[in-house]
Write a structure and sequence with these properties.
- By secondary structure, the protein is α/β, with parallel strands linked by helices.
- Helix content is 25%, strand content 19%.
- The strands form 3 sheets. The chain has a 6-stranded mixed beta sheet, sandwiched between helices. A two-stranded parallel sheet has the order 3-5. A two-stranded antiparallel ribbon has the order 8-9.
- Helix 1 crosses helix 3.
Amino acid sequence: MKNLNLLYFSPTDGTKKIVKEIANGIGYGYKEFDITLPQNRIENLFFAENDLIIIGVPTYAGRFPKLLKGYLDKISCNKAMAVFAVTYGNRDYEDSLLETKDLFESKGFVGLAGAVFVAEHSSTSKLATNRPNSDDLKIAYDFGVKIKDRLENLNDVSELKLEVPGNFPYVEKNLPQAPMAPETDDTCVNCKICAKHCPTSAINLEDCKKIDPTKCIRCCSCVKRCPFNSKKFTHPGFNNMKNMLETNFVDVVRMPEIFVG
């Protein structure tokens, strides 16, 4: 039996739900590495040959999250097997799964399986509303069962030939480059929920109305978690992007895709 580990970045919890349900399908006890918050991206991690790691990240403009690129220097590996689980907000995952696979395999991980799942878009609740839903989680669980079966019937890691969709060079998007952050209205009671969940410490813990736009990655964790709906983006660049998504993708229904080596 492999030592199961969960390594995930999940500002709005969609990726976390998927990764945990895959783990439930595998059925092993596991150790969690939630690297969403900055204080959890400090220590070095090493994974050995007897480890199995489910790596979960959200898609940002069709790519692996830039924020995590530097943290990868703290992760080392000696032939640990990996499952790559990528979420996206119902538009398109483009090259995010392939890039995640490439980045971790370049560090010595052996790709066992990969998957993409839909989660409610961070910028608007009108895309993939309330997903992952029960159907998505059932697919994630069954994916975990398939992974366990593959492990039990694997004679040698050289048998693994994991292929996932994507293109190299990876997609590049012309996204709004100006620093921006959510505005906070007078309903804010400074409860600090937003600051405690910010993956870049962009929100001032003493005064939650103060947000550093140069640190904000527009993950909208603060917007979605605020119990008083006190925060929202008003920047024209953000709103143009949001309007484009709602105009083009609200009525599109994407489904999970799984790949096993």
